[in-house]
Sequence to fold (333 residues):
Amino acid sequence: MTARTVVTGTGHYVPPRVVTNRDLEKLMDTSDEWIRERSGILERHHVEAGIGTSDLAVEAARRAIADAGIDPATIDFIVAATLSPDHYFPGIGVLVQAKLGLGTIGALDVRNQCSGFIYALSAADQYIRAGTYKRILLVAAEVQSTNLDFSDKGRDMSVLFGDGAGAVILEPNTNGDGRGILSTHLFADGNFASHLWMEKPSPMDSPTFQTGFFEEGRFFPKMEGRNVFVNACQRMPEAVRAGLEANGLRVEDIDALIPHQANDRISLMVAKGLKIPGEKVIRNIDRIGNTTAASIPIALDEAVKAGRIRTGHLVVLTAFGSGYTWASALIRW
Ligand code: UT7
Fold:
């Protein structure tokens, strides 16, 4: 029988420093009330100087490894998703591999921003089902706080984003109980690349790093918030429906929906669009903020540990973000 890919361990890590909306009020013209009403966020976590995305990834990975109860030496591949690698190159996959002492196993870096975890899950799922690898560490991590514009000019972005990491261990399940990843559906529309991006640095500029770009704030991420909002509310339900249809399942079959934690209003609109009851929707953006690729695995780990996701449940993940990219994954837990 064909193997399905099953999640055998989950873990997450957020840096200890909590930044509240009140803390942000001291930096820019914003208010706790505005941030709560428009995004549902009360606080987020920011790293201390010197801590990189790979450091958060390693902590989350260690927790997922412990949760799976495995010897790290048996991991045979790494997939790492982030938009905020420690360095322009190489990606964080190799740094995670070295920091965990995982020998010379391969490390794939995935660059699909908010959809990064689901894109990475899809890639890992193909490797496992093909029999190429038997135990994959998939980690998604972000440090965004060190490159946000905390002046009034950047307030639409900087209040939303936080730092954190989530990880899962993936293995084949051949025992015929139906557990595992049922499908992944990936979508993209590059016509909207500039609607949510970090324009600079760009190797198209010679030299790439120019003082003028810094002065103009072009090294900060930028977003057409309204357009992102509208598309996110439309595309995530579409991706979920594509997954349900491919598996002959209905919205009523879903036990837990984990939307990318972009904005709580978006999560609620996605739930409304799918007509799925609120209690089935996993939401933690109030405490964690938007952690881009890391948001789904962080929410997943919390939900599993809280007993909201149990064996046999139909778990649906969906994401939308920069690219634009959007995606869904259906997992029989
Ligand atoms: O991770 C995936 C990518 N990101 C997302 O999915 C986020 C998608 N977009 C959003 O979540 C929302 O568009 C935002 C939360 C970013 C903004 O909410 P909005 O309801 O769309 O507000 P808006 O951009 O239309 O701005 C309304 C007002 C503006 O003032 P004026 O022009 O009406 O005077 C903004 O300047 O709110 C102002 N504003 C703020 N005020 C206080 C924008 N940011 C802030 C702020 N504090 N932090």
